[in-house]
Write a structure and sequence with these properties.
Layout lengths: L1 H13 L7 H4 L20 H13 L5 H13 L30 E3 L4 E3 L1 H11 L5 H6 L10 H11 L13 H15 L9 H5 L4 E3 L2 E3 L5 H9 L3 E3 L4 E3 L1 H11 L10 H13 L9 E2 L17 H8 L6 H12 L14 H9 L18 H4 L19 H5 L3 H12 L21 H12 L8
Parallel strand pairs: 5-7
Antiparallel strand pairs: 1-2, 3-4, 5-6
The structure holds heme C (HEC) (2 copies).
The site of one heme C has 23 residues, from α9, β4, α10, α11 and α12.
């Protein structure tokens, strides 16, 4: 799915920047989970070449990364009335240092004698180094269907350069401490036609508006949420938004007057939120419409090679490409060390029946079911079965309970994609859903002559 999203982002950007080669420029952040790179010494056949091409695309599986690429280009290009790049911009760690800067802002800048968040600081550099006019930058500061402001891409680039780093908003300079305290006051400040403050919506655990979960931003764990996915990419509209936008929209929901873009009040509230999140690891810009819940973590949106190729080619990749990746999937199959493939069909039947596991409401670590009946007719004793997959009635009788068939069935359950790349069937062993014993029991259910499947 993410790839589809990244396509939207690419389309949204297409008019705004020369980005044909985004994949190649994007640093390799999301590594394909399974596929090993071909050794450089091997001559490249056309299939390998095709494979490497999609690997490059794979690496921008997160639409935010397209904005990072654009932001980096903007950062390094000479622009503005003074024809300067931003490479001398001091984000707090010295001129031109981008790595780690995002997780250490808002902070105090002596040259401006002000606390600034990263967006305000980059705007300051655009004005002072490049000669842009502040009123031009603040006229239409947020992304809309007409485009993404340069400042938003620049913030996304700078944010991406702090991915994986610990949030460490400084609280040393008196003005930094002031900003935090003012931010806290604003957070609790009730006013307006509904008597709302930020705390009304964000001051308690586990609250929601309609179906939207509201973080309790006064706690360290949830304050992280204020930083975790920002800048964030919204599926609806395909917009990239920064925290300045988020604050603007929350004040709107609070029925307050509109806060000044890049103003002291917004800086103060971002200092309060940011410093509350100190010590947490910043995950970088991301897709902001999904929330981690229970075991359903956000990395589930990342594509591995199989998902990517099937998404990209509408489940019908060229045969040569399919075969190549199928072979790589087959190499992931781990057969039981003792060579025993046939377990206990009775317990196999229970696993085939169960559809539990892996959702955000399931307890992590509890046994996951096989879901087999959801898609297959199996034993005649169960008449409620799905038809997404072929009938497996009489499977052992038809295919024979030979060592070869046992090996095939074990491998098929372990990694269905090894035999049919874009199969609807999950990869139960590969994804860690079913363990060795469970798969042995399922093989028995299908192949054991005593199993009801073969009666
Ligand atoms: C009327 C209710 C309401 C008020 C008041 C409100 N917000 Fe929000 N806030 C929301 C909603 C709704 C969301 C979106 C939640 C989502 O996307 O799941 C949100 C999201 C956020 C987020 C992003 C959290 C995340 O998980 O990404 C931050 C940060 C935030 N608000 C801060 C504030 C601050 C600071 C104030 C006070 C200036 C404030 N909010 C006032 C309703 C409110
Ligand atoms: C979401 C649906 C789905 C689920 C769940 C599912 N399968 Fe499948 N299965 C399929 C589809 C579709 C095929 C046919 C395409 C293919 O070969 O992958 C298939 C094929 C198979 C085959 C190969 C049949 C043949 O003729 O070679 C076996 C064996 C099999 N499934 C066993 C299982 C078992 C055991 C389970 C439970 C652990 C299971 N399946 C769960 C959809 C599913």
């Amino acid at each position: 799915m993410k790839q589809a999203l990244s396509m939207c982002a690419a389309l949204a950007l297409a008019t705004a920047l020369p980005l044909q080669d985004a994949g190649a420029q994007t640093p390799a952040k999301i590594k394909p989970a399974v596929v090993a790179a071909a050794p450089a010494t091997e001559p490249k056949d056309p299939v390998t070449a095709e494979f490497e091409k999609f690997r490059a695309v794979l690496e921008d599986g997160n639409p935010a990364e397209l904005f990072e690429v654009k932001g980096e280009e903007l950062w390094k290009t000479k622009r503005g009335p003074k024809n300067a790049s931003l490479e001398k911009c001091d984000l707090g760690l010295g001129p031109g240092v981008v790595n780690g800067a995002y997780v250490q802002t808002p902070r105090y800048y002596a040259d401006a004698d002000q606390v600034m968040d990263v967006e305000r600081r980059i705007a300051w550099c655009m004005v002072n180094l490049q000669g842009f006019k502040l009123e031009d930058l603040t006229k239409k500061p947020f992304s809309n269907d007409k485009g993404t402001p340069d400042l938003v891409s620049l913030v996304t680039y700078v944010a991406g350069a702090s991915r994986g780093m610990k949030i460490a908003i400084p609280q040393r300079h008196p003005k930094e401490i002031d900003a935090y305290n003012i931010g806290r006051e604003i957070f609790d400040y009730r006013a307006g036609p509904y008597d709302f403050s930020c705390a009304t919506c964000h001051g308690e655990d586990g609250k929601r508006i309609r179906m939207q979960q509201l973080p309790n931003l006064a706690t360290r764990k949830d304050a992280m949420r204020a930083y975790a996915g920002w800048p964030g990419y919204r599926l609806t509209g395909g917009f990239m938004h920064t925290l300045q936008w988020r604050m603007n929209d929350c004040f709107r929901q609070q029925r307050f007057p509109e806060p000044g873009y890049l103003s002291d009040s917004v800086t103060a509230i971002l200092t309060f939120l940011g410093a509350n999140a100190n010590g947490n690891v910043y995950k970088g810009p991301g897709i902001n419409d999904f929330r981690e819940r229970g075991q359903a973590s956000l990395d589930r949106l990342d594509n591995d090679a199989v998902q990517h190729v099937c998404n990209k080619y509408g489940n019908k990749p060229a045969p040569a490409l399919s075969h190549l990746i199928e072979a790589q999937q087959l190499a992931t199959v781990k057969l039981p060390a003792d060579g025993k493939l046939l377990g206990d069909w009775k317990s196999g039947e229970k696993i085939a029946q169960s559809g539990r596991g892996f959702t955000w409401t399931d307890k992590p670590g509890l046994p996951v079911g096989g879901n087999c009946y959801n898609c297959h007719e199996i034993a005649p004793t169960e008449t409620s079965f799905g038809t997404l997959g072929p009938s497996l009635r009489n499977f052992g009788k038809l295919r024979g309970n030979t060592p070869e068939t046992q090996k095939y069935v074990y491998s098929k359950i372990f990694n269905s994609k090894a035999f049919s790349l874009c199969s609807a069937m999950p990869r139960f062993g590969f994804m860690g859903a079913l363990n060795e014993k469970q798969i042995q029991d399922l093989v028995a259910l299908l192949l054991d002559p005593e199993s009801p499947v073969n009666k």
